[in-house]
Write a structure and sequence with these properties.
4-stranded antiparallel sheet, ABC_transporter-like_ATP-bd, nucleotide-binding, ATP-binding cassette domain-containing protein, 6-stranded mixed sheet, transport, 2 domains, ATP hydrolysis activity, 29% helix, alpha/beta
Length: 309
Amino acid sequence: METEQKQAMELVSVTKKIGGRTIIDNLSFTVRQGEICGFLGPNGSGKTTTIRMMVGLMAMTAGEIRIAGHSIRTHRSQALARVGAIVENPELYPYMTGKKNMIHFARMAAEPVSDQRINEIVDLVGLSDAIHDKVKTYSLGMRQRLGIAQALLHKPTVLILDEPTNGLDPAGIRELRDYLRELARQEKIAILISSHLLAEVELICDRALIIQSGRLVGERTVRGTAGEDELVLVELELKGMERARDASGQGYGLVKRESGIYTANIAKSAIPELVANLVRDGIEVYQVAIRKPTLEDTFLQLTKGDEAL
């Protein structure tokens, strides 16, 4: 399935230096058509700087960003015409109706936007019943959806959302999640979401990219099918570890959780060898339980436990 998806956005060896300090260091990744991709990292990792370069608000020191095949460096207007973005709260006019807001933003588009297109997008984000009400009467979730509708008017290839669930209650977050999934499915738009809510990213995204100190440190398929070599979290109940060559368990790649219980983050295909080595060394294996690590597990492992996102 992945081979059928076209690249909507591509970053190639992107570097950004400010005052002699490297903020983004040789960063490369792609986001595919119809994919919802999480963009994660601790505070100061370079997420905001990267997004600013993607939307043309900041120049690169080196490297390349392509949107729908157009280079931001050499074909800036064509590339940015294929990007829709909301950074935190969308800019809306509260004393105008939702429809008048849409008409206003449509007039600023590089190409004409028909009333039919406006109605299609309003329907897609589920605001048909409220589009003639003033925006000041909208809930925060409705405003977020209207902001997304406004960002979709010019039929972008990529939609970039920075902390889109800020201030939303659980119902609003779920509502937004459902609309973004439908959007990716119907419009085949690539959606990149920068968020500090790891559990929410895990629920909505197909894939997650993790950066730290301006570098890509990990990539995790979130909603794909587990493969033989996918990283899994293994929990083992063992007896006799004190007799082993490494009583701490570290020699086997194990971490002791409590008396007799150890865990390891390893490829699924490596489990038989791990168990065989334990048995060979005279350790009794009572139980082996496997679970896929959560996105939080992966994030903390790759960023060495940095708490701030």
